[in-house]
Structures are given as structure tokens and as C-alpha cells.
Design brief:
By secondary structure, the chain is α/β, with parallel strands linked by helices. The chain has twelve helices and 14 strands. The protein has two domains: about 110 residues, Enolase-like, N-terminal domain (Enolase-like, domain 1, 2-Layer Sandwich), CATH 3.30.390; about 220 residues, TIM Barrel (Alpha-Beta Barrel), CATH 3.20.20.120. Helices cover about 35% and strands about 15% of the residues. It has a seven-stranded parallel beta sheet. A three-stranded antiparallel beta sheet has the order 5-14-13, with no helix packed on it. It has a two-stranded antiparallel ribbon with strand order 1-2. Strand 8, helix 7 and strand 9 form a beta-alpha-beta unit. The longest helix has 19 residues. About 50% of the residues are buried.
């Protein structure tokens, strides 16, 4: 699938995505899963090719060997019996298989995913991801269109040390902050591109008006993240540095982050749900992160984002911001809020349109 606009990150340019979808069915229902693994290994080391291979050759045959209907809580144990390192080496492939089983399980039971959430909200807060492939004027114009569309949180990829760039990340932040009202949250996603010696630069971005920075330093650089959090100048969330939903909350407790980015494509929906139930007691800001999802996973992410612990806009913008034509009924944002047409109906995932 071709993205409507390309997005430049520190680990590469996102212009298209090869999507792997899973359908699991029996005589009574069909469940869907989506694998979020990108085409190249720059993000986490897991690729779409490797994920599809391990799904078709190992994970799905192991699950389909069972004659009785599976429960999603059994998936990791079944896969772990044949691939003990699956959760570490193939987390997005494993999460996609678990998602399909969970979707099928819920549809068979006639239960919506929201039934697993304590006091779910009726809608989720949507966030917009901006392309940074053009000029500063282009980025500001796109930001203003997103705000006019009701978005209150804007994410932009920030990449330091870009020799070919016509502007610096600080110039971009200054331009965005000058053009937008103070109540519009600006989030910079660095994908671990800054070095420890860049700490002063990151602090300066906060002083210039960047509200949140996501994964500023390398995933193993606990000390520098703690030093940044200690300044209190900018909110900090981790992404690549989090290997599981439990790690996400541990990072807050360990003062490596102030906020939690939860990516169901990496952790699975059940683990994310467990963490959200616990996050209420820790005072951390929480949002649901995406992987340039199609509607199959995007609708599921909307449903997860109705959890009351998700108190920040999530990466669940309208389908039209990503795809000219989505594979499901499109996700639509109205005044910064998104609701699924399937909300509180049986299942979890969006259903592809034939």
C-alpha cells in the first residue's frame, strides 16, 4: 500500500508498506489480525518478510494444529513451545497471530473488545502525524489543516544532523509553535536519533515549545533519558527502547520517561490491556502508538484507546491521512474524536471490505 504522503524518520523514509493480514476462521466466524512489521529492519530489526515467513512456516501451523477453538491467552504458550524466542525475535508476528485469535474468539462469543475494558469511553482522542518531507512552510500548512480538522496533538518526525536538510529541527519547532495555539500539543518522534552529547539540544527543543519527545536517545541509554526527565523541561516517552508492555510502565517508574507509548502491534492487545489497567495508579500519560496501520489494526487501536487510562491523543488519525483507499471501512475523525462504526459490536479488528 502506498502512503498518501511520505514521512521521513531517522531510520528511513516511509513511502509505502507491504501489509500482511491474517484471517482465522471456523464454520461460524472469521477473525482478523494485522502484522505491523515494516519493510526494512531499521525500526526494531523485525521485517515484513521475516514476519510473514515465521507466520506461514511456524506460528500459524502450530495454532491450526489444534482441533478445538483456541483462546487468545493460549497463543504465546503454544508458540513458545516450538519457538522459545518468538516473543523476543518475532514480537509483531506473534502479536498479529494473537490478534486474529482474539478477534475470532470475541466474535464467536458475540462480545466486543470494549467489554474487557472497565468503563470504556464512547470515543478516543485522535492524533495526527505530519509529513516532514517538504519545506517548513509545507509542514506548517499541513499542521494548520490538521488543527482545522479538529486534531489537538500533532506528531512530527525529528531528525538531527541531517546534512541534506534545508532546515534544522529547532527551526521547525519554532515555526510550528509560532503558528499554533498554545493548547495544541506538538510531539517530536526522534526514533533514537540523538546522542548523549545532544542532551542540551533536546532540552532546547522543549524550551522552544516542543511538548513531548518520543525516544530521543538510543534504546539502551537509560542514563541520558533519566537526565532529560530530571530537567522537567519536556515530557518524554519511549518507543524502540520498550520491548514489552511491562517495560513501558517500568520506564516511568525508573524515571526514564514521563509518558507511556503502547504499541499493540509489538506487545499484543491483551498485554496492553493489562498495562492500562495498572497505569491508572502511576499517573503517567498514556497513548496508543501505531505502525502506519490499515483499518484492520486501526479500528482495533481505536477500541483499545477507549480505555480510561488513555488520556492523551493516540496515533489513530483518519484513514485518509495515510491511504487513498483503506482495506476496511475508513476511520473518520470528527472534531478530534474517533469512534468505530463497530464499537461495542462483537470482535476487535476491522473487517476488510471485499
Amino acid at each position: 500500500m502506498e502512503l498518501v504522503t511520505r514521512v521521513v524518520a531517522s531510520h528511513g523514509t516511509h513511502a509505502r508498506r507491504r501489509v500482511t493480514l491474517i484471517a482465522m476462521s471456523n464454520d461460524d466466524a472469521e477473525g482478523w489480525g494485522e502484522c505491523g512489521a515494516p519493510d526494512d529492519p531499521g525500526y526494531s530489526g523485525e521485517t515484513a518478510d521475516a514476519a510473514e515467513n515465521v507466520l506461514t512456516e511456524r506460528i500459524l501451523p502450530a495454532l491450526c494444529a489444534h482441533s478445538r477453538p483456541l483462546r487468545a491467552t493460549e497463543v504465546r504458550a503454544i508458540v513458545g513451545a516450538i519457538l522459545p524466542d518468538a516473543a523476543a525475535r518475532h514480537p509483531m508476528a506473534l502479536a498479529a497471530a494473537e490478534m486474529a485469535v482474539l478477534d475470532l474468539q470475541l466474535r464467536l462469543a458475540g462480545v466486543g473488545f470494549e467489554a474487557l475494558i472497565p468503563a470504556p469511553k464512547r470515543a478516543a482522542l485522535a492524533g495526527a502525524t505530519l509529513s516532514n518531507a517538504g519545506s517548513i512552510d509545507d509542514i506548517v500548512a499541513e499542521a494548520q489543516r490538521a488543527v482545522d480538522g479538529g486534531y489537538r496533538r500533532l506528531k512530527v518526525k525529528i531528525t538531527p544532523h541531517r546534512d541534506s536538510a534545508t532546515f534544522s529541527e529547532s527551526e521547525m519547532v519554532v515555526a510550528l509553535r509560532a503558528a499554533l495555539d498554545d493548547d495544541i500539543m506538538i510531539l517530536g518522534d526522534a526514533n533514537g536519533a540523538y546522542l548523549p552529547e545532544d542532551l542540551a539540544t533536546v532540552i532546547a527543543l522543549g524550551e522552544l515549545g516542543l511538548d513531548v519527545i518520543e525516544q530521543p536517545f538510543a534504546d539502551h541509554d537509560t542514563e541520558t533519558h533519566q537526565r532529560l526527565v530530571a530537567t522537567g523541561v519536556i515530557r518524554v516517552a519511549l518507543d524502540e527502547g520498550v520491548r514489552s508492555a511491562t517495560d513501558a510502565l517500568d520506564a516511568v517508574v525508573n524515571h526514564e520517561a514521563t509518558d507511556v507509548t503502547l504499541k499493540p502491534a509489538r506487545f499484543g492487545y491483551l498485554a496492553c490491556l493489562d498495562l492500562l489497567n495498572a497505569a491508572v495508579d502511576h499517573g503517567a500519560g498514556v497513548w496508543i502508538g501505531g505502525m502506519f496501520d490499515t483499518g484492520v489494526a486501526r479500528w482495533a487501536n481505536v477500541r483499545l484507546a477507549t480505555h480510561p487510562a488513555v488520556d492523551m491523543p493516540s496515533d489513530i488519525g483518519a484513514s485518509s491521512r495515510y491511504w487513498a483507499v483503506d482495506v476496511t471501512e475508513p476511520v473518520v475523525v470528527d472534531d478530534g474524536l474517533v469512534t468505530s462504526p463497530g464499537l461495542r459490536t462483537a470482535g476487535l479488528a476491522g473487517t476488510p471490505v471485499a
